[in-house]
Amino acid sequence: MSTPWLPLTQPEQLTDLAQASHEQPVLIFKHSTTCSISAAAKSKIERQWADSGLDLPIYYLDLLRFRPLSAQIADQFSIRHESPQLLLIQDGECTYDASHMGIRLSDVKTAVK
Questions:
Q1: Which helix H or strand E contains 8, and what residues bound it?
Q2: 3-class DSSP string for 44-90
Q3: Predicted confidence band of residue 11 (pLDDT cuts 50, 70, 90)
Q4: Domains in the chain, start-ordered, CATH in brackets?
């Protein structure tokens, strides 16, 4: 099973996913398409997804194309912007925030309520 990436391209999606996170946790992956570390983190997620046991929506944000959305995420969830970055949103709040090679789907699974 490949990673079911959902494109995150509109500010309204952030409002919707924050509301949806009260019913089911949501992941956001912030990716810089020109960064080799970001590409490695994205590949790691894609390789581990099928065996992760996670059945959550996972949104993909292209930071270069949608930079204002990244700033909105940082403001809305009170987190520092990093890239690459994986966020777990639950009950409208960011409960897991990892970046670079610290991104581990096993940690996400542990953090899911």
A1: none
A2: HHHHHHHHHCCCCCEEEEECCCCHHHHHHHHHHHCCCCCCCEEEEEE
A3: very high
A4: 5-111 (3.40.30.10)
Rounded alpha-carbon distances, angstroms, from residue 65 to 61, 87, 94: 8, 19, 23
Does the model's pTM come out above 0.70? yes
Length of the chain: 113
Q: Compute the Cα dihedral for 14, 16, 19, 22 and give only its sign.
A: negative
Decide if pLDDT at 107 tops 60. Answer: yes
pLDDT tens readout for residues 56-69 = 999 999 999 999 99
Bridge-based pairing of strands 85-90 and 26-31 is antiparallel
Left (φ > 0), alpha (ψ -120 to 50) or beta: where does 35 sit?
A: beta
Q: Which residue has the higher pLDDT, 1 or 104?
A: 104
Coil, helix or strand at residue 113? coil
